[in-house]
Amino acid sequence: MVRRLVALLAVLVLAGALAPPGQAAGRAQHRPVIFVHGFSGSGGQFDSQARRLTSNGYRGDLIEAHEYDSLFQAGTREQVYAGLDARIDRLLARSGADRVDLLAHSLGTGLMQEYLRSSPERAAKVAHYVNLDGAPSADQPGGVPTLAVWGEGPSTRRIGGARNVYFPGQAHTEVVTSKETFAEFFAFFTGRAPRTTEIVEEHGTIALSGRAVLFPSNVGAEGARLEVYEVDPRTGERRTRRPLAVRTIGADGSWGPIGARPRAHYEFALVWSQTSVHHLYFQPFRRSDRLVRLLTSRPGEGLAAQMQTGDRHANLVINRQREWWGDQGAAGDSLRINGQEVLNAANAPRAKRTIGIFAFDAGADQVTDLTAPLQPFFGQPFLTGMDVHVPAERPVTVTARPRGGNGEVDVLTVPGLPSSGHRMSLQFDDHLG
Asked: Where is the AFL C-terminal domain (predicted)?
Protein backbone atom coordinates (compact mmCIF):
# COMPACT_ATOMS: atom_id res chain seq x y z
CA MET A 1 0.00 0.00 0.00
CA VAL A 2 2.82 2.43 0.84
CA ARG A 3 4.52 1.72 -2.49
CA ARG A 4 1.26 2.39 -4.36
CA LEU A 5 0.79 5.71 -2.56
CA VAL A 6 4.36 6.76 -3.32
CA ALA A 7 3.96 5.82 -6.99
CA LEU A 8 0.66 7.68 -7.20
CA LEU A 9 2.19 10.78 -5.62
CA ALA A 10 5.08 10.65 -8.11
CA VAL A 11 2.65 10.49 -11.04
CA LEU A 12 0.61 13.40 -9.70
CA VAL A 13 3.75 15.48 -9.24
CA LEU A 14 4.97 14.58 -12.73
CA ALA A 15 1.59 15.23 -14.30
CA GLY A 16 1.49 18.57 -12.56
CA ALA A 17 4.94 19.43 -13.83
CA LEU A 18 3.85 18.69 -17.39
CA ALA A 19 0.35 20.09 -17.08
CA PRO A 20 -0.96 23.34 -18.48
CA PRO A 21 0.77 26.01 -16.51
CA GLY A 22 -1.18 29.17 -16.84
CA GLN A 23 0.01 28.47 -13.82
CA ALA A 24 3.71 28.45 -14.77
CA ALA A 25 5.58 31.74 -14.80
CA GLY A 26 6.94 33.09 -18.07
CA ARG A 27 6.65 31.99 -21.65
CA ALA A 28 7.39 28.47 -22.94
CA GLN A 29 10.92 27.99 -24.28
CA HIS A 30 9.62 26.43 -27.51
CA ARG A 31 6.48 26.95 -29.56
CA PRO A 32 3.68 24.36 -29.34
CA VAL A 33 3.86 21.57 -31.92
CA ILE A 34 0.82 20.05 -33.65
CA PHE A 35 0.88 16.93 -35.84
CA VAL A 36 -1.85 16.08 -38.37
CA HIS A 37 -1.88 12.46 -39.60
CA GLY A 38 -2.79 10.99 -42.96
CA PHE A 39 -5.22 8.32 -44.17
CA SER A 40 -6.06 5.77 -41.45
CA GLY A 41 -3.46 7.42 -39.23
CA SER A 42 -3.48 8.64 -35.64
CA GLY A 43 -1.37 10.57 -33.18
CA GLY A 44 0.58 7.35 -32.59
CA GLN A 45 2.58 8.09 -35.74
CA PHE A 46 4.12 11.10 -34.01
CA ASP A 47 4.79 9.29 -30.74
CA SER A 48 8.54 8.76 -31.22
CA GLN A 49 9.09 12.29 -32.50
CA ALA A 50 7.21 13.74 -29.52
CA ARG A 51 9.51 11.87 -27.15
CA ARG A 52 12.54 13.05 -29.13
CA LEU A 53 11.26 16.61 -28.70
CA THR A 54 10.88 16.22 -24.92
CA SER A 55 14.36 14.63 -24.87
CA ASN A 56 15.52 17.99 -26.25
CA GLY A 57 13.73 20.22 -23.77
CA TYR A 58 10.24 20.62 -25.25
CA ARG A 59 7.29 20.57 -22.86
CA GLY A 60 5.17 17.45 -23.29
CA ASP A 61 1.90 19.30 -22.71
CA LEU A 62 2.61 21.53 -25.72
CA ILE A 63 2.91 18.65 -28.21
CA GLU A 64 -0.40 17.41 -29.58
CA ALA A 65 -1.89 15.47 -32.46
CA HIS A 66 -4.97 16.69 -34.30
CA GLU A 67 -6.92 13.54 -35.12
CA TYR A 68 -9.93 13.06 -37.37
CA ASP A 69 -11.80 10.46 -39.39
CA SER A 70 -9.91 10.27 -42.69
CA LEU A 71 -13.02 8.84 -44.39
CA PHE A 72 -14.92 11.96 -43.22
CA GLN A 73 -17.88 9.92 -42.03
CA ALA A 74 -17.59 11.21 -38.46
CA GLY A 75 -16.98 14.84 -39.40
CA THR A 76 -16.45 17.21 -42.31
CA ARG A 77 -13.27 18.94 -43.42
CA GLU A 78 -14.70 22.19 -42.09
CA GLN A 79 -15.15 20.58 -38.67
CA VAL A 80 -11.54 19.36 -38.78
CA TYR A 81 -10.43 22.95 -39.45
CA ALA A 82 -12.66 24.42 -36.74
CA GLY A 83 -11.28 21.91 -34.25
CA LEU A 84 -7.74 22.86 -35.26
CA ASP A 85 -8.59 26.56 -34.74
CA ALA A 86 -9.67 25.77 -31.19
CA ARG A 87 -6.61 23.60 -30.53
CA ILE A 88 -4.22 26.32 -31.73
CA ASP A 89 -5.90 28.99 -29.61
CA ARG A 90 -5.80 26.75 -26.54
CA LEU A 91 -2.12 25.93 -26.99
CA LEU A 92 -1.21 29.58 -27.57
CA ALA A 93 -3.03 30.58 -24.39
CA ARG A 94 -1.37 27.78 -22.45
CA SER A 95 2.15 28.50 -23.67
CA GLY A 96 2.21 32.27 -24.11
CA ALA A 97 3.77 31.64 -27.54
CA ASP A 98 3.18 33.87 -30.55
CA ARG A 99 2.49 31.03 -32.99
CA VAL A 100 2.52 27.24 -33.30
CA ASP A 101 4.63 24.88 -35.42
CA LEU A 102 2.59 22.53 -37.60
CA LEU A 103 3.43 19.19 -39.26
CA ALA A 104 1.28 17.05 -41.53
CA HIS A 105 1.64 13.70 -43.28
CA SER A 106 0.21 12.31 -46.52
CA LEU A 107 -3.54 13.09 -46.72
CA GLY A 108 -3.01 15.53 -43.86
CA THR A 109 -0.73 17.67 -46.05
CA GLY A 110 -3.54 18.34 -48.50
CA LEU A 111 -5.78 19.31 -45.60
CA MET A 112 -3.21 21.60 -44.04
CA GLN A 113 -2.30 23.27 -47.31
CA GLU A 114 -5.99 24.05 -47.77
CA TYR A 115 -6.26 25.18 -44.14
CA LEU A 116 -3.31 27.58 -44.36
CA ARG A 117 -4.62 29.05 -47.59
CA SER A 118 -8.16 29.43 -46.26
CA SER A 119 -7.52 32.72 -44.42
CA PRO A 120 -4.63 35.06 -43.55
CA GLU A 121 -5.70 34.86 -39.90
CA ARG A 122 -5.11 31.11 -39.80
CA ALA A 123 -1.75 31.32 -41.56
CA ALA A 124 -0.64 34.10 -39.20
CA LYS A 125 -0.86 31.72 -36.22
CA VAL A 126 1.59 29.20 -37.75
CA ALA A 127 5.32 29.93 -37.57
CA HIS A 128 6.55 26.89 -39.52
CA TYR A 129 4.88 24.18 -41.58
CA VAL A 130 6.36 20.73 -42.32
CA ASN A 131 4.95 18.78 -45.29
CA LEU A 132 5.76 15.07 -44.79
CA ASP A 133 5.67 12.91 -47.94
CA GLY A 134 2.38 14.32 -49.12
CA ALA A 135 0.98 16.79 -51.60
CA PRO A 136 3.33 18.92 -53.72
CA SER A 137 2.65 22.62 -54.18
CA ALA A 138 3.77 25.43 -56.44
CA ASP A 139 4.36 27.68 -53.43
CA GLN A 140 4.47 27.73 -49.64
CA PRO A 141 0.89 27.29 -48.33
CA GLY A 142 -0.47 30.58 -47.01
CA GLY A 143 3.02 32.03 -47.28
CA VAL A 144 4.07 30.10 -44.17
CA PRO A 145 7.78 29.06 -44.14
CA THR A 146 7.75 25.42 -45.21
CA LEU A 147 9.98 22.37 -44.96
CA ALA A 148 9.06 19.48 -47.26
CA VAL A 149 10.44 16.01 -46.51
CA TRP A 150 10.06 13.33 -49.18
CA GLY A 151 10.66 9.58 -49.00
CA GLU A 152 11.03 6.99 -51.72
CA GLY A 153 9.47 8.03 -55.04
CA PRO A 154 10.01 10.65 -57.72
CA SER A 155 12.51 13.35 -56.83
CA THR A 156 10.46 15.78 -58.91
CA ARG A 157 8.02 16.24 -56.02
CA ARG A 158 8.54 19.56 -54.31
CA ILE A 159 7.01 22.63 -52.74
CA GLY A 160 8.01 25.84 -54.43
CA GLY A 161 9.98 28.26 -52.27
CA ALA A 162 10.38 25.68 -49.50
CA ARG A 163 13.36 23.69 -48.27
CA ASN A 164 12.88 20.28 -49.92
CA VAL A 165 14.72 17.29 -48.41
CA TYR A 166 14.76 13.80 -49.94
CA PHE A 167 15.29 10.47 -48.16
CA PRO A 168 14.95 7.95 -51.02
CA GLY A 169 15.69 5.00 -48.73
CA GLN A 170 12.77 5.76 -46.40
CA ALA A 171 9.21 4.58 -46.89
CA HIS A 172 6.01 6.63 -46.63
CA THR A 173 5.35 6.28 -42.87
CA GLU A 174 9.03 5.90 -42.01
CA VAL A 175 9.52 9.48 -43.19
CA VAL A 176 7.29 10.62 -40.32
CA THR A 177 9.05 8.65 -37.60
CA SER A 178 12.74 8.64 -38.58
CA LYS A 179 15.48 10.41 -36.64
CA GLU A 180 16.72 11.97 -39.88
CA THR A 181 13.37 13.72 -40.33
CA PHE A 182 13.45 14.76 -36.69
CA ALA A 183 16.84 16.43 -37.10
CA GLU A 184 15.52 18.34 -40.11
CA PHE A 185 12.35 19.71 -38.53
CA PHE A 186 13.99 20.43 -35.17
CA ALA A 187 16.57 22.64 -36.88
CA PHE A 188 13.80 24.22 -38.98
CA PHE A 189 11.81 25.08 -35.84
CA THR A 190 14.66 26.23 -33.61
CA GLY A 191 17.53 27.30 -35.88
CA ARG A 192 19.93 24.78 -34.34
CA ALA A 193 20.65 21.07 -34.38
CA PRO A 194 19.10 18.90 -31.63
CA ARG A 195 21.27 17.79 -28.72
CA THR A 196 20.23 14.23 -29.53
CA THR A 197 18.09 12.35 -32.02
CA GLU A 198 17.61 9.50 -29.55
CA ILE A 199 14.73 8.96 -27.13
CA VAL A 200 16.46 9.57 -23.80
CA GLU A 201 15.32 7.33 -20.97
CA GLU A 202 13.91 9.00 -17.88
CA HIS A 203 14.59 7.73 -14.39
CA GLY A 204 12.01 7.01 -11.75
CA THR A 205 8.27 7.02 -12.37
CA ILE A 206 7.05 8.16 -15.77
CA ALA A 207 3.51 9.18 -16.77
CA LEU A 208 1.58 7.57 -19.62
CA SER A 209 -1.58 8.95 -21.20
CA GLY A 210 -3.35 8.94 -24.52
CA ARG A 211 -6.56 7.90 -26.23
CA ALA A 212 -8.44 4.66 -26.87
CA VAL A 213 -10.02 5.07 -30.31
CA LEU A 214 -11.94 3.14 -32.92
CA PHE A 215 -9.81 2.35 -35.97
CA PRO A 216 -9.68 4.10 -38.40
CA SER A 217 -12.20 6.83 -37.44
CA ASN A 218 -10.32 8.01 -34.30
CA VAL A 219 -13.67 8.27 -32.51
CA GLY A 220 -13.31 7.57 -28.79
CA ALA A 221 -13.89 3.95 -27.71
CA GLU A 222 -16.69 5.07 -25.43
CA GLY A 223 -17.99 2.47 -23.03
CA ALA A 224 -14.87 0.31 -22.82
CA ARG A 225 -13.08 -0.10 -19.48
CA LEU A 226 -9.30 0.23 -19.54
CA GLU A 227 -7.28 -1.93 -17.16
CA VAL A 228 -3.49 -1.57 -17.06
CA TYR A 229 -1.19 -4.34 -15.81
CA GLU A 230 2.54 -4.78 -15.57
CA VAL A 231 3.46 -8.09 -17.21
CA ASP A 232 6.36 -10.53 -17.08
CA PRO A 233 8.38 -9.97 -20.29
CA ARG A 234 9.26 -13.69 -20.42
CA THR A 235 5.64 -14.87 -20.60
CA GLY A 236 3.40 -11.83 -20.96
CA GLU A 237 1.50 -12.93 -17.88
CA ARG A 238 0.21 -10.28 -15.50
CA ARG A 239 2.35 -9.74 -12.42
CA THR A 240 -0.66 -8.96 -10.22
CA ARG A 241 -4.30 -9.99 -10.23
CA ARG A 242 -5.44 -6.45 -9.58
CA PRO A 243 -4.74 -3.83 -12.28
CA LEU A 244 -2.36 -0.95 -11.61
CA ALA A 245 -5.00 1.42 -12.93
CA VAL A 246 -8.59 1.33 -14.15
CA ARG A 247 -10.23 3.98 -16.34
CA THR A 248 -13.63 4.20 -18.00
CA ILE A 249 -13.27 5.44 -21.57
CA GLY A 250 -15.48 8.41 -22.38
CA ALA A 251 -16.62 9.98 -25.64
CA ASP A 252 -13.25 11.56 -26.49
CA GLY A 253 -11.29 8.38 -25.71
CA SER A 254 -8.81 10.09 -23.38
CA TRP A 255 -7.19 8.32 -20.43
CA GLY A 256 -4.31 8.94 -18.01
CA PRO A 257 -1.95 9.89 -16.59
CA ILE A 258 -0.93 6.47 -15.30
CA GLY A 259 2.34 5.82 -13.50
CA ALA A 260 4.84 3.42 -15.07
CA ARG A 261 8.47 2.32 -15.01
CA PRO A 262 10.69 3.03 -18.07
CA ARG A 263 11.95 -0.54 -18.56
CA ALA A 264 8.78 -2.42 -17.62
CA HIS A 265 6.34 -4.19 -19.96
CA TYR A 266 2.64 -3.36 -19.80
CA GLU A 267 -0.67 -4.72 -20.98
CA PHE A 268 -3.52 -2.32 -21.73
CA ALA A 269 -6.76 -4.32 -21.61
CA LEU A 270 -9.86 -2.75 -23.14
CA VAL A 271 -12.74 -4.66 -21.58
CA TRP A 272 -15.86 -4.43 -23.75
CA SER A 273 -17.71 -7.18 -21.88
CA GLN A 274 -17.00 -10.31 -19.89
CA THR A 275 -16.64 -12.23 -23.15
CA SER A 276 -14.80 -9.64 -25.26
CA VAL A 277 -11.46 -8.15 -24.20
CA HIS A 278 -8.87 -6.44 -26.40
CA HIS A 279 -5.34 -6.79 -25.00
CA LEU A 280 -2.69 -4.35 -26.27
CA TYR A 281 1.04 -4.82 -25.59
CA PHE A 282 3.87 -2.35 -26.16
CA GLN A 283 7.62 -2.43 -25.93
CA PRO A 284 8.85 -0.63 -22.79
CA PHE A 285 8.25 3.11 -22.67
CA ARG A 286 11.51 4.99 -22.09
CA ARG A 287 10.04 8.25 -20.93
CA SER A 288 6.72 9.95 -20.24
CA ASP A 289 4.38 9.64 -23.19
CA ARG A 290 1.16 11.54 -23.95
CA LEU A 291 0.50 10.03 -27.39
CA VAL A 292 -0.14 6.38 -26.49
CA ARG A 293 -2.84 5.23 -28.87
CA LEU A 294 -4.97 2.15 -28.20
CA LEU A 295 -6.50 1.31 -31.60
CA THR A 296 -9.54 -0.91 -31.27
CA SER A 297 -13.02 -1.64 -32.61
CA ARG A 298 -16.31 -2.55 -31.04
CA PRO A 299 -16.95 -6.32 -30.83
CA GLY A 300 -18.27 -7.60 -34.14
CA GLU A 301 -17.28 -4.45 -36.04
CA GLY A 302 -14.34 -3.40 -38.21
CA LEU A 303 -11.65 -5.50 -39.83
CA ALA A 304 -11.08 -7.47 -36.63
CA ALA A 305 -14.51 -8.99 -37.12
CA GLN A 306 -13.20 -10.58 -40.35
CA MET A 307 -10.66 -12.66 -38.39
CA GLN A 308 -11.82 -16.22 -37.78
CA THR A 309 -12.03 -16.99 -34.07
CA GLY A 310 -11.99 -20.12 -31.95
CA ASP A 311 -10.97 -21.67 -28.65
CA ARG A 312 -7.87 -23.39 -30.04
CA HIS A 313 -6.00 -20.50 -31.64
CA ALA A 314 -4.94 -16.93 -30.84
CA ASN A 315 -5.38 -13.94 -33.14
CA LEU A 316 -2.70 -11.24 -33.43
CA VAL A 317 -2.59 -7.73 -34.87
CA ILE A 318 1.03 -6.58 -35.16
CA ASN A 319 1.75 -2.89 -35.74
CA ARG A 320 4.81 -0.73 -36.31
CA GLN A 321 4.94 2.89 -37.47
CA ARG A 322 7.62 1.92 -39.98
CA GLU A 323 6.85 -0.25 -42.98
CA TRP A 324 7.51 -4.00 -42.91
CA TRP A 325 9.57 -5.06 -45.95
CA GLY A 326 9.29 -8.76 -46.75
CA ASP A 327 10.79 -8.81 -50.24
CA GLN A 328 14.14 -7.07 -49.77
CA GLY A 329 16.27 -9.95 -48.54
CA ALA A 330 19.00 -8.92 -46.10
CA ALA A 331 18.02 -5.26 -46.68
CA GLY A 332 14.50 -5.94 -45.41
CA ASP A 333 12.82 -6.95 -42.17
CA SER A 334 12.32 -10.22 -40.36
CA LEU A 335 9.26 -11.01 -38.25
CA ARG A 336 8.91 -14.37 -36.55
CA ILE A 337 5.93 -15.75 -34.66
CA ASN A 338 7.02 -18.62 -32.42
CA GLY A 339 10.11 -18.98 -34.61
CA GLN A 340 8.22 -19.03 -37.93
CA GLU A 341 9.22 -16.30 -40.40
CA VAL A 342 5.97 -14.73 -41.61
CA LEU A 343 7.08 -11.88 -43.88
CA ASN A 344 7.54 -12.64 -47.56
CA ALA A 345 7.25 -11.09 -51.00
CA ALA A 346 3.59 -12.09 -51.28
CA ASN A 347 2.21 -10.62 -48.05
CA ALA A 348 4.58 -7.71 -47.32
CA PRO A 349 6.23 -6.40 -50.49
CA ARG A 350 7.95 -3.06 -50.10
CA ALA A 351 5.45 -1.43 -52.47
CA LYS A 352 2.54 -2.39 -50.16
CA ARG A 353 3.77 -0.04 -47.40
CA THR A 354 2.50 -2.42 -44.72
CA ILE A 355 2.45 -1.17 -41.14
CA GLY A 356 -0.38 -3.34 -39.75
CA ILE A 357 -0.51 -7.17 -39.89
CA PHE A 358 -3.58 -9.30 -39.13
CA ALA A 359 -2.39 -12.83 -38.33
CA PHE A 360 -4.84 -15.66 -37.56
CA ASP A 361 -5.69 -19.26 -38.42
CA ALA A 362 -7.82 -18.89 -41.55
CA GLY A 363 -10.20 -21.82 -41.77
CA ALA A 364 -9.31 -22.84 -38.20
CA ASP A 365 -7.48 -25.84 -39.71
CA GLN A 366 -4.39 -25.54 -37.47
CA VAL A 367 -2.25 -25.04 -40.60
CA THR A 368 -0.06 -22.06 -41.48
CA ASP A 369 -0.18 -21.06 -45.15
CA LEU A 370 1.89 -18.03 -46.16
CA THR A 371 1.75 -18.51 -49.92
CA ALA A 372 -0.78 -15.71 -50.43
CA PRO A 373 -2.03 -12.78 -48.33
CA LEU A 374 -5.51 -12.80 -46.85
CA GLN A 375 -8.35 -10.57 -47.97
CA PRO A 376 -9.97 -8.19 -47.18
CA PHE A 377 -6.92 -7.10 -45.17
CA PHE A 378 -4.41 -7.00 -48.03
CA GLY A 379 -6.81 -4.91 -50.07
CA GLN A 380 -6.70 -2.09 -47.51
CA PRO A 381 -3.96 0.59 -47.59
CA PHE A 382 -1.03 -0.09 -45.26
CA LEU A 383 -2.43 -3.46 -44.06
CA THR A 384 -1.92 -7.14 -44.78
CA GLY A 385 -3.39 -10.41 -43.60
CA MET A 386 -1.71 -13.79 -43.16
CA ASP A 387 -2.79 -17.31 -42.31
CA VAL A 388 -0.75 -18.24 -39.23
CA HIS A 389 -1.81 -20.89 -36.75
CA VAL A 390 -0.95 -19.62 -33.26
CA PRO A 391 -1.93 -22.24 -30.66
CA ALA A 392 -3.90 -20.99 -27.69
CA GLU A 393 -3.02 -21.63 -24.04
CA ARG A 394 0.74 -21.31 -24.47
CA PRO A 395 3.02 -18.22 -24.63
CA VAL A 396 3.41 -16.54 -28.03
CA THR A 397 6.79 -15.00 -28.83
CA VAL A 398 6.99 -12.47 -31.64
CA THR A 399 10.48 -11.41 -32.71
CA ALA A 400 11.26 -8.52 -35.04
CA ARG A 401 14.63 -7.84 -36.63
CA PRO A 402 14.33 -4.34 -38.10
CA ARG A 403 16.25 -3.43 -41.21
CA GLY A 404 19.25 -1.20 -40.62
CA GLY A 405 19.51 -2.31 -37.01
CA ASN A 406 22.81 -4.22 -37.23
CA GLY A 407 21.09 -7.39 -36.07
CA GLU A 408 19.10 -5.75 -33.28
CA VAL A 409 16.15 -7.87 -32.18
CA ASP A 410 12.90 -6.66 -30.59
CA VAL A 411 10.84 -9.25 -28.73
CA LEU A 412 7.33 -9.29 -27.31
CA THR A 413 6.01 -12.38 -25.56
CA VAL A 414 2.30 -12.53 -24.80
CA PRO A 415 -0.12 -15.16 -23.45
CA GLY A 416 -1.80 -17.38 -26.03
CA LEU A 417 -5.32 -16.18 -25.29
CA PRO A 418 -8.09 -17.97 -27.23
CA SER A 419 -9.51 -15.75 -29.95
CA SER A 420 -13.06 -16.78 -29.07
CA GLY A 421 -13.05 -14.11 -26.36
CA HIS A 422 -9.80 -12.20 -26.73
CA ARG A 423 -8.08 -9.95 -29.27
CA MET A 424 -4.38 -9.18 -29.00
CA SER A 425 -2.46 -6.25 -30.53
CA LEU A 426 1.33 -5.95 -30.37
CA GLN A 427 2.95 -2.56 -30.98
CA PHE A 428 6.61 -2.63 -31.95
CA ASP A 429 8.84 0.45 -31.80
CA ASP A 430 9.51 2.29 -35.06
CA HIS A 431 12.93 3.45 -33.81
CA LEU A 432 16.15 1.48 -33.40
CA GLY A 433 17.92 1.05 -30.09
From this structure: 205-299
